[in-house]
Amino acid sequence: MQLARVGAGVVGVLLVVAGAGVVAAQAVPSVPPRSVAAPTTPAAAPAAAPAAAPGEPADVDALVAHALAANPLPRAAAARLDAAQARVSPAGARPDPMLMAGVQNLPVTDPGFADEMTMAMVGVGQTIPVRGKLALRRRTAERQVDAARADVERTRLEVARDVRVAFYELAYLDHALAGVERNRRVLVDLVRAAEARYGAGADLAQGASAGMGSAGAAASPPRPPSAMSPAMVAASGSPVPAGGGMTSGGMTGMGGTGRGAAGVAPPTPLSAGPAAGSTGGMSSGGMSSGGMTGGSMRSAGGMAGGALQEILRARTDLARLGEDASALQEERRAVRARLNAALDRPSDTPVDAPRVPERIVRAAVADSGRDVRFASAALGARAADSPLPTVDVLQALATSRSPALRAHEALIAAQGAQVELARRERMPDIDVAVQYGVRPMHPDMVTATVSVPLPMQRGRVQDQAVAGARAELAGLEAEHHRQRNAIRAEVARLHGEAERARTQLALLKAVVLPQAHAALAAGAASYQAGQAGLSAVLDARAAVFNQETAYFRALSEFAKAVAELELVVGGEVLP
């Protein structure tokens, strides 16, 4: 009866795991709860990770608003915009007039100031630019303001993208860590139950061997000690029973009888009387009691070895979970530091329970697996009913709204004005001046002058300036063409990533996760019936864990692709 009670405990653990999986396989929750404590058994659908610190879950929109106010990049871009705006007025203003004062025609010898040509002079001069030059200079400065303004918008979008991408990555890592913890607890329970079952099976084998009679007992070899030591107990801390055991498939070889491991009463130990009668009846068939006892012990030894392997396999899985948790924790610290850097906060500032917003979850995957549809029955078809605009629409939006392209277009316009200004520079500016001379003993005099530079080196100066400005404009136009192509390609790539994540989520919700949970339930049932070992259950459990992790990874990838698209397009892309 001891083995039956232990086996029932093992099956209880497995049925809870499989039962939860079967229920949740029908519908993976589309929006994780704000904070869910890690259960003892793995749920079939992914659950939200607990908050890293007490408090309300973090809201990504609030974090974006905080980053836009605190991050130094938008402030730097705004300062550059102020500087560009301050340069507009000076660019369109005429040069300041020049004030002149002095003495003219003073002889170096007598009569000095008494000379009739000597005078004290005061005058003003002004440079008059060629018509259109000031307007072109002002236009250049205004276009540079437009470029700086677009750069401010681009910088704000980049900061928002950085916050959202890091936040969604944290949401995935928290879900993954919660899944590792759930798996660890389940493995600990399974290891404890398997160890108890292993010990109970060994004790039963000992009792059966003792009941074979003196002849069988004399022929039976002593049972070897357990190969497991207390040091092999990992997270559970439960002691390892000494002695042999039985496999998860059940106990066989006792008089040719095979029994199930759970829910079936163990064989009644044979007494000395019936054993002797059985021996007499079986001797005529050529089988002695000593041979029967040896076969029973070999079967018990085989069961012990199989159970030991399964326990060691479970303990190896536990150790690997620790390795996975360590890697995830280190990755989370790095991502949290990146998020806090965007928020202008210390790197170790906690971020409470990050989760993907509900509107993005609804856009990524249907609420139920029954609502999942695909564009066609062909292999590799996308999930239907995409909330994203088509690639052509997104590319058109990007080429018209992208801040990077608008900034570059403004720079091209500014350079175009510079080309026209270089042409105007072939016509020199005019300097005019008026002077008034005072002579002490003679009438005062007025002088007016007009000065014009002579373009003696037009081919080496003015023409080369025009050629340089045109070449600069051609380079900007070619770079703009390259940027447009790059943005179209980036839009197509990000749209494909988002659709790939949507399709993966649809497959996981409608097909993969339900089948993984069904496989786990079938493995638990086979283990209960003695038709499979614990390894099959462990494999099925690992498959469920991997698919749940893939679910949240795909959800995070979709959210990050949307955030990247919003940066490239220059605004929201989801309805």
Characterization of the model:
This protein is an alpha+beta fold. The chain has a domain at 2-59 and 156-279 and 288-365. Helix content is 61%, strand content 7%. It contains 13 helices and six strands. The chain has helices at residues 2-25, 60-70, 72-86, 88-91, 133-210, 214-219, 272-283, 289-342, 358-364, 391-401, 403-424, 462-529, 534-569; strands at residues 98-104, 119-128, 251-254, 257-259, 430-438, 445-451. The strands form two sheets. It has a four-stranded antiparallel beta sheet with strand order 1-2-5-6, with no helix packed on it. The chain has a two-stranded antiparallel ribbon with strand order 3-4. Strand 3 (251-254) and strand 4 (257-259) form a beta hairpin. Helix 1 (2-25) packs antiparallel against helix 5 (133-210). The chain is elongated, with a radius of gyration of 43 Å. It comes from Roseisolibacter agri. Residues 278-294 have a biased composition (Gly residues). One of its GO terms (molecular function) is efflux transmembrane transporter activity.
